[in-house]
Amino acid sequence: MLKPKVISQVLRQSLHNGIKAALIMTSEGSLISFAADNDKDATIYSAISANIWNTYKSRDSQLQYQILHCEEGVVFVTGIGAMLLCLVGESKVDLGILKAKAEALKNHLEEPLQQVAPYQEYTLRKA
After folding, report:
1. Which residue of 40, 48, 56, 123 has the fewest C-beta atoms within 10 A of its own C-beta?
2. What is the mean pLDDT of residues 44-68?
3. Taking 90 as the threshold, does the pLDDT of residue 72 lie above it?
4. CA separation (Å) from 112 to 2, 77, 116?
5. Helices (H) and strands (E) in the chain, counts
6. DSSP assignment, residue 37?
7. C-alpha separations of 25 from 17, 31, 71, 102, 126 in Å
8. Are 57 and 63 in contact (CB under 8 A)?
9. CA separation for the pair 74, 56 (Å, rounded)
10. Which residues pair with 83 in a beta bridge?
11. Is 0.90 topped by the overall pTM?
12. What does residue 29 show for φ and ψ, rounded to 5 degrees?
């Protein structure tokens, strides 16, 4: 069985070299597990990044990742099966390091997460 505490420990290992938060969330932005300075920041990061991811995913079904430059840092979002991985870095973080850490986490967590929540194609509703 996959344990959220173990996932959190794996995510916490990525919190250095300019990375200040790492999150696993549903495609709707509900947190599954995270490593961040505080719960409030993690909740905000997940809600905003999932919303932006879904907006762009509805336009480009081949979307593999996003890099968002914000006032307080850089956000990297990518899909892991039916879930999302989000890394938040300081504004001066090297984008190569951010992407490499995200890919390493994705490769490490993809198989266990897909056992819990198998890949589901995003269903897009048209307004």
Report:
1. 123
2. 91
3. no
4. 7, 19, 7
5. 3, 5
6. S
7. 23, 4, 22, 14, 24
8. yes
9. 17
10. 26, 80
11. no
12. 100, 5
As a whole number of angstroms, the distance between CA 2 and CA 23 comes to: 16
DSSP string computed for 9-32: HHHHTT--TTEEEEEEEETTS-EE
How far is C-alpha 76 from the geometric centre of its chain's CA atoms? 7
The two structure tokens encoding residue 100 = 């490499």
What is the reported pLDDT for 121?
Answer: 47
Token duo for residue 119? 């890949």
Q: Three-state DSSP class for 52?
A: helix
Amino acid at 17: N
Query: Which residue, 55, 54, 44, is CA-closest to 20?
Result: 44
Structure tokens at 116: 């819990």
Q: 81 in helix, strand or coil?
A: coil
The token duo for 83 is 């879930």
Q: What is the pLDDT of residues 1-55, one digit of tens each?
A: 566 677 888 899 989 889 999 999 998 999 988 998 778 888 999 999 999 999 9
| Average pLDDT estimate for 51-72 | 90
Token pair recorded at residue 49 = 């990044």
